[in-house]
Design brief:
The structure holds 2 protein chains of 2 kinds. Chain A starts with a strand and ends in a 17-residue tail after the last helix. Chain A is elongated, with a radius of gyration of 28 Å. Chain A is an alpha/beta fold. Chain A has 22 helices and 18 strands. In chain A, strand 15 and strand 16 form a beta hairpin. Chain A has helices at 39-42, 44-54, 81-91, 121-127, 140-144, 157-164, 195-207, 221-226, 228-231, 237-249, 274-278, 289-292, 308-312, 315-320, 362-370, 374-378, 391-395, 403-419, 433-436, 443-452, 458-474, 483-491, and strands spanning 2-11, 14-25, 30-34, 63-69, 103-105, 108-109, 115-116, 132-136, 151-154, 211-214, 265-266, 279-280, 286-287, 297-301, 322-326, 331-335, 339-344, 382-385. In chain A, the strands form 6 sheets. Chain A has a 5-stranded parallel β-sheet. In chain A, strands 1-2-4-3 form a 4-stranded mixed β-sheet. In chain A, strands 5-8-9 form a 3-stranded parallel β-sheet. Chain A folds into 2 domains: 2-164, Ribosomal Protein S5, domain 2 (2-Layer Sandwich); 188-491, 3-Layer(aba) Sandwich (Rossmann fold). Chain B starts with a helix and ends with a strand. In chain B, 54% of the residues are buried. The radius of gyration of chain B is 23 Å and the shape is elongated. In chain B, strand 7 (208-211), helix 10 and strand 8 (233-236) form a beta-alpha-beta unit. Chain B has 3 domains: 2-63 and 79-85, no CATH class; 91-269, Rossmann fold, CATH 3.40.50; 289-341, Orthogonal Bundle (Arc Repressor Mutant, subunit A), CATH 1.10.10.10. Chain B has an 8-stranded mixed β-sheet with strand order 1-2-6-5-4-3-7-8, sandwiched between helices. In chain B, strands 9-11-10 form a 3-stranded antiparallel β-sheet. The chains are: A alpha/beta, B alpha/beta. Chains A and B meet through helix 7, strand 18, helix 20 and helix 22 of A and helix 6, helix 7, helix 14, helix 15 and strand 10 of B.
C-alpha cells in the first residue's frame, strides 16, 4: 500500500520539489523517515501521529516507511508534516490517490491538528509548478504572490481530510491583497539642526552611495541612519518579490498583504557572526542580514566593534551585489544589493575627530584604526563627520524639512540618473565617467588641486566624481558637473585614516 | 684597556632592563661598572669592549659623569644621567636654552605656534631643547631646522631606535644639524618609564620651559614638575578655554606661569633683547569675501563642515567651494572631517 504526495523543501532562498512516499506493510508497528531528513523533519512522526488522531483519522498500526525523494536534497524543518500526514492517509486507504491528484501540500502540524506556517512559503510555492497548493491559511496571502496558482488556505488537518473526501469544498483564498500600508518610518523632520548630516543622507539616497558617519557619542549618527529608508523610492515589482522571497526564506515577518513594498532597514548588532551577517549555516543555508537588507539599507552601528573577518566578508557582496556561500553540503547564492550605512567613533574615547580632543593612548588609537581595512573604508563614497547639534537647535520648536520633501528631490535625481542609462550614480562604470559625469569649467582644477596636495587618492577620484554627479542631479543640473559640485563631493569625503595624531600642518 | 672595559660595562648596565637611572648612578658611584655588571647578574660572556666599539662605530659618543665633554648643565643637576649617549655636536646645547614641550595630540594651530617659537627663538640665538615626540615636540624641532639652527633632541630610547617611527627623517636631521641625547644604550626599546626620566633631562638642560599645548593631565605636566623642582621658569601658551588640548596650559597660567604670546615674551623672560622681526608679507593668495567669511567662522578653533555651515550661514555649494580654495591656498587645513585655520 503506497501513497505519493508532492511537497517542497527550502535550500537558501530556493525551493526544491520533493515527493513524499509512504509505504505501509505488515510487520511490527514502526515509523521511519529516510531520504536526508534533518532532526526536525525526522521528528515528524510524533507530530503527524498526534495530529491524525486529533483529527479523527486512524493511525495505521503497521510498519510505516516514509521516503523523501530525491534523497540528494537535504530536507530541513517541519514543512513536510502535512504532506507526510496526507501520504499516510492515502497509503492506509483513508483517502484515495485520485483525491490528491494535482495537489501539493505544505505546512507544519500541531499536535491538535492545526496547520502552522513554514518559512519560505513563497519560494516553496514557486517550486511546485502548476499544482494547486494546500497550505496553512496564514500563509495563503504570501503564496498568492506567486500568481497563476490555485491556493487552498486551510487551518486544520481535519478540514484537509474533509475536503479530500469530498465532504467539503476547498476554501478559495481571497486573492485581493490589501493595499500596502505605508510603514511607520522615522521622519527626517525630527533631526534638528545638522544641515550637513541631513544633506549627506539625501546624497546617499539619491545616488545609492554607501556612507560612513563619523562622530562622537551622542552626535545623532543612529538617528540620521534610521531616516535613510524613508528617503528611498518604493521597490519595483521584481525587487519587491526578490526581497520578499529572502525575508520569507529567512523566516522574518512579512507585512500585511505579503509583499515587501518598502526598502527594508536591517541593523545587526556588532556582535554578529559572519554567518549571521552573510548567510549560511551548515544545514539550513539561511540568508543573512545583508540579504535581508536587499534593496534596502544595511546599518552597521559601531563599525569598528565588528570582528575584522566579519567586515571583510562584506567586501565581495558590496562589489558584486550577490553573496555566494559555499558549504560542504551545498553552494547557494543570495542576492545582496544593499545601501551600506555605517557609523563609528573616530577613536575609542570618541572625541578624537577634533584635533587635540582625543584622550586615548597612541596604541589604543592604532589598534582601533587597524580594525578597518583600507579596502573596506574605500567602499564608502561618503564619509561624513557628524557633530552634536547645538542646544538651541535641540530645543527649537521649528521642525526641519520633512522626509517627504527630501524624497521628492531624491526621486527626481534618481530619474535623471536612470535616464542616462545607469541604475544609480554609484554604479557608473569608471570607463563611462567622462561620458556620464563630464567635468565642467573649473571642476577639473579643483580635483587636480586635491590630488596634488595628497588630500585625494587616485581611487578616491572616481568616487568623488560619481558623488559630484549625484550632487548635480539633486539640483537638476544635467550639464557637466561644476567646481561647486566637486567641492561638495570632496567635503563629504573625510580622510579614511581619520584624524592623525600628527598634525598635517607639519607635513607641509 | 680597563677604562674601555669599564665604559663597556657602563653601557651594558645602561641597556639592562632592570636598571633605572638611580640604580645606575649608585652602581657606578659604588662598586664600579664591572662589579655592577656582575652584581645585576649580567651575562659574563658578553664582551664589554665589543659593545663599546659597536657604539663608536655607530657614531655614538658615550660620556660618564667625569668625562670633560659631559655637559656642565647636566653635571650640576641633582639627578644627572650616569651614562650619557650622544649623537651629533654637544655645542648645540649653547649657553642659553629653552625647552619647548607639549602634547602629542595637538591642534594644527598649536603645532604652528610651536614651530614659530622654535624658529624665532633660534633666530634670536637661543638653543631649543625638545623630546622628538609627535605633535608639539616635533613641530618645535622643525621650527629650529627652518631657521637653520641646531636642535637638541632628548629621547627615551636607544639612539638607533627611532620612536615614533613616523619621525625617522626628523630624528636623522636633528642628529645631523644638532644633537641627539639619551641615557639608553643602542637597541633599547622605548619603555613607558623612560619618558618621564627623559623629561627630567629636558628640564635640566633648559633655562625656561615653554608648554605650548597640554591636556589637563599629560606628559608635559611631568616636565613642568621636573622644571619647578629645578627652579626653572615655566611659561605657557594660552589657548581657548573650550579646547581640551589647552586645558593644561591654561591651568598653568591660572597658577601663575607667565603666558607666552610669541618669542618676544620668552626672550624678555630670559633677559635678552628681542630683535623685532619684520613682518613678512603673507605669500598666500588673499581670499575673496566668501573665503574671509569662512575664515571668520573658524574663530581659531577646529570646526567641522557642519559647524561652518551653521556659523557662516552660507549655502553648502558656496561653503564647499570656498573651503577647497582656502585648502589649496594654505589658509585652512583638514584632518579627517575637521578643518582648522592656519596662521600666516
Amino acid at each position: 500500500m503506497l501513497g505519493l504526495v508532492p511537497s517542497a523543501s527550502l535550500l537558501g532562498v530556493d525551493g526544491h520539489a520533493i515527493t513524499v512516499e509512504v509505504h505501509i506493510s505488515s510487520g511490527l508497528p514502526s515509523f521511519s523517515v529516510v531520504g536526508s531528513p534533518d532532526t526536525a523533519c525526522r521528528e515528524a512522526s510524533g507530530r503527524v501521529r498526534a495530529a491524525l488522531l486529533s483529527s479523527g483519522a486512524t493511525w495505521p498500526s503497521h510498519r510505516i516507511t516514509v521516503n523523501l525523494a530525491p534523497p540528494t536534497v537535504r530536507k530541513v524543518g517541519a514543512g513536510l508534516d502535512l504532506a507526510i500526514a496526507v501520504a499516510i492517509l492515502v497509503a492506509s486507504e483513508q483517502v484515495t490517490q485520485e483525491a490528491v491528484a494535482g495537489l501539493a501540500f505544505l505546512g507544519e502540524l500541531g499536535l491538535d491538528g492545526s496547520l502552522r506556517p513554514v518559512p519560505g512559503t513563497l519560494c516553496l510555492t514557486e517550486a511546485l509548478g502548476e499544482r494547486a497548493v494546500v497550505l496553512p491559511a496564514a500563509s495563503a496571502g504570501e503564496a498568492g504572490l506567486v500568481g497563476g496558482r490555485t491556493i487552498h488556505g486551510v487551518d486544520t488537518l481535519a478540514r484537509v481530510v474533509a475536503c479530500l473526501r469530498g465532504e467539503e469544498p476547498w476554501p478559495v483564498a481571497a486573492n485581493e491583497a490589501p493595499p500596502p500600508a505605508l510603514p511607520a518610518v522615522a521622519d527626517l523632520a525630527d533631526v534638528r539642526g545638522q544641515p550637513v548630516g541631513r544633506y549627506a543622507m539625501e546624497v546617499a539616497a539619491a545616488g545609492a552611495h554607501h556612507i560612513l558617519l563619523l562622530g562622537p557619542p551622542g552626535a545623532g549618527k543612529t538617528m540620521l541612519a534610521s531616516r535613510l529608508p524613508g528617503l528611498l523610492p518604493p521597490l519595483t515589482d521584481s525587487a519587491a518579490l526578490e526581497t520578499t522571497r529572502i525575508h520569507s526564506a529567512a523566516g522574518l515577518g512579512l507585512p500585511a498583504g505579503g509583499l515587501i513594498r518598502h526598502p527594508p532597514f536591517r541593523a545587526p548588532h556588532h556582535g554578529a557572526s559572519s554567518v549571521a551577517l552573510v548567510g549560511g549555516g551548515s544545514l539550513t543555508m539561511r540568508p543573512g542580514e545583508i540579504s535581508a537588507a536587499c534593496h534596502g539599507v544595511l546599518f552597521l552601528d559601531e563599525l569598528a566593534e565588528f570582528a575584522t573577518h566579519v567586515l571583510d566578508a562584506l567586501r565581495q557582496p558590496l562589489e558584486e551585489g550577490v553573496v555566494r556561500v559555499a558549504r560542504a553540503a551545498a553552494t547557494v547564492t543570495f542576492p545582496a544589493r544593499f545601501l551600506l550605512v555605517a557609523a563609528m567613533n573616530p577613536c575609542p574615547c570618541g572625541y578624537g575627530g577634533r584635533p587635540g580632543g582625543c584622550r586615548c593612548t597612541d596604541g589604543a588609537r592604532a589598534r582601533y584604526q587597524r580594525r578597518l581595512s583600507g579596502p573596506l573604508l574605500d567602499r564608502f563614497d561618503l564619509r561624513v563627520e557628524v557633530s552634536r547639534p547645538s542646544v538651541s537647535d535641540l530645543m527649537s520648536r521649528s521642525r526641519s524639512e520633512p522626509t517627504a520633501a527630501v524624497r521628492e528631490r531624491v526621486l527626481v535625481a534618481r530619474a535623471i540618473a536612470r535616464a542616462r542609462g545607469t541604475a544609480t550614480n554609484a554604479a557608473i562604470p569608471v570607463d563611462r565617467l567622462d561620458e556620464l559625469a563630464p567635468l565642467g569649467d573649473g571642476a577639473a582644477d579643483v580635483l587636480v588641486q586635491a590630488l596634488q596636495s595628497g588630500r585625494l587618492s587616485a581611487r578616491g577620484l572616481h568616487r568623488v566624481r560619481r558623488v559630484a554627479r549625484t550632487v548635480a542631479d539633486l539640483q537638476q543640473h544635467e550639464a557637466p558637473v561644476t567646481a561647486a559640485h566637486v567641492a561638495i563631493a570632496l567635503s563629504l569625503r573625510a580622510d579614511a585614516s581619520l584624524a592623525s595624531a600628527d598634525s598635517p600642518a607639519l607635513s607641509a | 684597556m680597563t677604562a674601555d672595559r669599564a665604559l663597556g660595562c657602563a653601557i651594558l648596565l645602561a641597556g639592562h632592563p632592570g636598571v633605572g637611572p638611580r640604580r645606575l648612578a649608585e652602581l657606578l658611584a659604588g662598586p664600579g661598572a664591572e662589579q655592577g655588571w656582575r652584581d645585576v647578574g649580567g651575562d659574563p660572556l658578553v664582551d664589554p669592549e665589543r659593545v663599546l666599539a659597536t657604539h663608536r662605530e655607530a657614531g655614538v659618543d658615550v660620556l660618564l659623569l667625569d668625562d670633560p665633554e659631559y655637559p656642565e648643565r647636566l653635571r650640576s643637576d641633582p639627578e644627572p644621567p650616569a651614562v650619557l649617549f650622544v649623537r651629533g655636536d654637544l655645542q648645540a646645547i649653547g649657553s642659553t636654552s629653552v625647552a619647548i614641550v607639549g602634547t602629542r595630540r595637538c591642534t594644527g594651530s598649536g603645532a604652528g605656534v610651536a614651530r614659530e617659537l622654535g624658529r624665532d627663538l633660534t633666530e634670536a640665538g637661543v638653543a631649543i631643547v625638545s623630546g622628538l615626540a609627535l605633535g608639539i615636540d616635533g613641530a618645535a624641532h622643525r621650527g629650529v631646522l627652518d631657521a637653520g639652527g641646531a636642535p637638541v633632541g632628548v629621547v627615551g630610547s636607544g639612539l638607533d631606535v627611532v620612536y615614533p617611527s613616523r619621525h625617522r627623517d626628523l630624528w636623522d636631521q636633528v642628529a645631523t644639524h644638532g644633537v641627539l641625547l639619551g641615557e639608553a644604550a643602542l637597541g633599547v626599546r622605548p619603555a613607558a618609564w623612560r619618558f618621564p626620566a627623559r623629561n627630567r633631562i629636558i628640564a635640566a638642560l633648559a633655562d625656561v620651559v615653554v608648554v605650548v599645548e597640554s591636556h589637563a593631565a599629560g606628559g608635559s605636566m611631568h616636565t613642568v614638575h621636573e622644571a619647578i623642582e629645578r627652579d626653572r621658569l615655566v611659561m605657557a601658551v594660552p589657548g581657548s578655554v573650550r579646547s581640551p588640548s589647552a586645558a593644561g596650559t591654561n591651568q598653568l597660567i591660572a597658577e601663575g606661569c607667565p603666558p607666552v604670546r610669541d618669542a618676544t615674551d620668552v626672550l624678555v623672560a630670559l633677559g635678552l633683547t628681542a630683535a623685532t622681526r619684520a613682518a613678512a608679507p603673507d605669500p598666500r593668495v588673499r581670499p575673496d569675501a566668501t573665503g574671509r567669511a569662512v575664515l571668520a567662522g573658524f574663530d581659531w578653533e577646529p570646526a567641522t563642515l557642519e559647524h561652518l555651515a551653521v556659523r557662516t550661514g552660507l549655502p553648502l555649494p558656496d561653503l564647499a567651494l570656498a573651503l577647497e580654495t582656502l585648502l589649496a591656498a594654505g589658509w585652512v587645513d583638514r584632518a579627517g572631517g575637521w578643518y582648522e585655520r592656519v596662521a600666516g
